[in-house]
Here is the input.
Amino acid sequence: MKITDIRMIRLLGPRNHCLGGVERKLSKVIVRVDTDAGVYGLGEVDDFMGVRQGVDYMREYFRDRDPFTVNAIVSEMLYGTHPPHPDESRRGDMPDCNAVNFCSPTATPWGPVIWAASGVATALCDLVGKALNTPAYHLLGGNFRDRAKVYLDRSSPNDIVDLSAWKKMASDTVKSGFTQMKFDIDFMATECVEDVWGRSLTLRQINRIVERLGAVREVVGPDFEICVDCHMQYNAPDAIRVSNALAHLNLLWLEDPTPITNPDSCAEVRQRSPIAICVGEMFSAEQFRLFIHHKACDILHPDILFCGGMHELQRIANYAELNHLPVAFHGNGGALATIAAANVAVTCRNFLGLEYHMIETPWVGDMVRRDVPLFCDGYVPLSDAPGLGVELNREVCARYLAPGESLFD
Ligand SMILES: [Mg+2]
Here is the structure.
């Protein structure tokens, strides 16, 4: 079997997510890998800078390759090969750029390169599962459990100064059946921010955050898991300060407290934080190794859209387990990426929870369909259909096609 094409469709629709009530558009990109056997696979990439160009590159570079060699395709994309190179490796010019295989053809295992490779790798897993008539989680060693726990990203209510809005958001989340949720430190008290460029949290801001999260804890009770995210915004002393101020609320984790490129500052926060430190939503396996080595994290937080796809996600989780650390999966994706991540989550013994951002944006959850619901009682249930067990919801995709796009035929 050979890869004949790698195509994309781009969807564009409203993004209904809290974030202080800002109305935004959301773009989603679905990838399809086609073969000469007629079997195809679906994946999802995030529409960040350079990602669509990365998928275009992979279409040219990996055409005619064996779709069963998923790890080799991802590894060659990230690290290249050395001379004399695999026989099937592409040489010479491609239509729009240079194909350079003596180092990484794309020169880096971070950024748009790995983000593009992540979606193609996931589509390949779907394809291989379909070709072998078995669910994707069987390709990863089989499942420990038959559903993956979901945690909802709540960010903040639209009216952040109104405590009743926080309480309503908390009670709505409990009623919807989910048992874990996350709020964004940087969005929780924006009216107290004095300098948008600073890396500091004011005491006034910290006090409002404590009050608002306290209201949430009061509603959900002592057993509901709550996390907070710092979005890599703060200096180390203020991250430690806010962690101590929130300690009495018994949070599950404090996420990405400091800018991500420095494991030493994160290790300093971790050493003095009463809340467990969770890092790595944009990391590849190598960066997780670095942070574990520097004792800079308690919980690993890879995202299937950014870490290299399903096999890489499992590899990171297994590495965490060897270090006796739990793993949660960051989730910036729609239904397709979420289902793919759940297929990995069930194969990882140390899995804590899988994030979903888009509960208020139904079209993102409906862009694919399968034989079981996307969510059931706060979990993604498994399907035993082949591959990822999904097909495009052509009606929804047609409705939200971005200008100039057309559906896969
Ligand atoms: Mg985050």
In short: DSSP finds 14 helices and 14 strands in the chain. The radius of gyration is 21 Å. The chain has two domains: 3-134, 147-390. The chain has a mean pLDDT of 94.
